[in-house]
Amino acid sequence: APHPPLRAIQALPDNLISQIAAGEVVERPSAVVKELLENALDAGATHITVRLEQGGIKRIAITDNGRGIAPEQLPLALARHATSKIASLDDLENVITLGFRGEALASIASVSQLTLTSRTAEAAHASMIDGSTGAVTPSSGTQGSTVDVMDLYFNTPARRKFLKSDQTEYGHCAEVVRRIALARPDVTFSLTHNGKTVDHWQHTEFAKRSASILGSEFADARLAVDESAGALRVHGFVGLPTASKARGDAQYFYVNGRFVRDKLLMHAVRAAYQDVLHGDRYPSYVLALDLDPALVDVNVHPSKIEVRFRDSRAVHQFIYHAVNRALAQTSATSHGATPA
Ligand code: ADP
Ligand code: MG
């Protein structure tokens, strides 16, 4: 192959840096949905509306009733490496918000037509920033924020080609909403696609939210888990073997409120099922592990689906025993399902 022409080293323009970063942060519409939902929750929202068009490729608009952003801060919200969530290494090691990198909005804005409309409790009216011009103008709206993302990847055609059909992208977006709605039953979520309401989950308690999201098959055949040991607590539900599936698509694990797909945790649950489940079946579960944020590193990767524990052996043992004890109830109560 011919050598590329020799060029002088030069610093990349900011917008290009954001577009490159966008490849990691927003690999598809569902990643935008995740980032915007996390921002809404970090802003203390109790009511969140997700509107999608054409699987999110045409449009993703998320409205929340959270704290909002002051008009003079709107340009900073879209700036790279600008965040209100951490200010020091110490904060990073004890991060309790879902976001902290300050790069999601900048990345999304660099590969879409984005507007952000927001109003704080103090403001007399809402203000809107246009991501492509940076102009801030007065707008209307109640307290909270709306991020409107149109035409994802319109300016990066190479990346746009990697998007799948609207229906496939929609499926990924809906799954992200489910994951987050499961973790936050105290928040009302609604999801529309192409103008039709697909889901509406009124704020409720965890047992009910998980039953409505995972369906009656799981709700009728699940066992409660709630154990604590020192700084660790795990709670949630594990499905009886009868609620197992041929695919592992009903496995939800949260660490400090963050959805994760972590090998160590999945292994611990799997091991606890070993005696009661065939090797080709997947257990269904919704489990939330809460621990001191200093004992877990969530700063592994921008998509933050993996975590690293300070003491992974202790965590593995703890999860294994908690699930094992819950499953032991089945043999104790003969073979009947104990509806929760
Ligand atoms: P991060 O969440 O890592 O801080 P983002 O790029 O996602 O980075 O957001 C940048 C900043 O914009 C946040 O730190 C927050 O102050 C503000 N922000 C973003 N979305 C919202 C929202 N829905 N409501 C209130 N503030 C928001
Ligand atoms: Mg964020």
Task: Give an overview in words.
One of its GO terms (cellular component) is mismatch repair complex. One of its GO terms (biological process) is mismatch repair. Residues 210-328 form the DNA mismatch repair protein S5 domain. Keywords: DNA damage, DNA repair, Endonuclease, Hydrolase, Nuclease. The protein has 340 residues and is α+β, with helices and mostly antiparallel strands. It is built from eleven helices and 15 strands. Strand 11 and strand 12 (258-260) form a beta hairpin. Helix 1 (14-25) crosses helix 5 (104-110) and helix 2 runs parallel beside helix 7. The N and C termini lie far apart (64 Å). The model is unreliable at 333-340 (pLDDT under 50). Bound molecules: adenosine-5'-diphosphate and magnesium ion. Adenosine-5'-diphosphate (ADP) binds next to helix 2 and helix 5.
Keywords for this entry:
alpha+beta, binds adenosine-5'-diphosphate, 340 residues, 11 helices, binds magnesium ion, five-stranded mixed beta sheet
